[in-house]
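Example for tutorial group B:
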C-alpha cells in the first residue's frame, strides 16, 4: 500500500487534512529563528529542535526532494485560552494520533513533522549522546521554517477552530524522487 492510500485510510483520525505539492511550501528563516525565543520550551532540549537542527536551508533542501506532503490536524476543547494543562493534554492526544500515523506508514518512504519538539523519550540525550531512537524522532514543523498559519491558509485548513479550542498540526512528506 502506498503512503497516500495509508493516510487517506486514516482520515477518520483527523479533524481536517489536505494534500499538496511541496512546491507550495514557503520556508522562512524568521520562522526557524523564532525557535530561539523558546515559546514551546524545547529549544536546546532535543535532537529535533534548534540549535541541534539550526540549518533550516538544509532542511528545506531535504524536504523539497519529496513531491508531496499531507497535513492533518486534531482539534481539542479546552477551558479557556489560559488552560495550559488542557493544551498539554491536547498535544499529547495529537501525538498519539501522529504516532498511529507513523506506525501505519512503517516501511514506506516518508518523513513526519509535528507540533512542538519530539517527546518520544522522557529525557532526550541531547547534547551528550546520540538520539536513542532516530527512526522515531519527530521535528516540529516550525523548526524547519514552515509558518503553520500560512500553511493552513495555503491548503485550506482552519488554524483557529472556535473559542476554547486548540488545534495541532502534523505533516507527512512523501513520494521521494
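The residue assignment follows.
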Amino acid at each position: 500500500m502506498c503512503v497516500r492510500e495509508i493516510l487517506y485510510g486514516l482520515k477518520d483520525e483527523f479533524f481536517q487534512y489536505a494534500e499538496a505539492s511541496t512546491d507550495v511550501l514557503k520556508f522562512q528563516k524568521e520562522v526557524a529563528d523564532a525557535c530561539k525565543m523558546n515559546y514551546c520550551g524545547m529549544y536546546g532540549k532535543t535532537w529535533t529542535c534548534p540549535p541541534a537542527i539550526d540549518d533550516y536551508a538544509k532542511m528545506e533542501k531535504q524536504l523539497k526532494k519529496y513531491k508531496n506532503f499531507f497535513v492533518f490536524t486534531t482539534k481539542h476543547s479546552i477551558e479557556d485560552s489560559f488552560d495550559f494543562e488542557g493544551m498539554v493534554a491536547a498535544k499529547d492526544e495529537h501525538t498519539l494520533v501522529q504516532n498511529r500515523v507513523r506506525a501505519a506508514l512503517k516501511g514506506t518512504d516518508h518523513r513526519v513533522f509535528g507540533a512542538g519538539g519530539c517527546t518520544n523519550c522522557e529525557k532526550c540525550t541531547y547534547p551528550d549522546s546520540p538520539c536513542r531512537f532516530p527512526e522515531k524522532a519527530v521535528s516540529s514543523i516550525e523548526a524547519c521554517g514552515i509558518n503553520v498559519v500560512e500553511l493552513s491558509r495555503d491548503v485550506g485548513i482552519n488554524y483557529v477552530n472556535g473559542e476554547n479550542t486548540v488545534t495541532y498540526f502534523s505533516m507527512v512528506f512523501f513520494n521521494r524522487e
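The mean pLDDT is 92. Compare this with the pattern of hydrophobic and polar residues in the output above.
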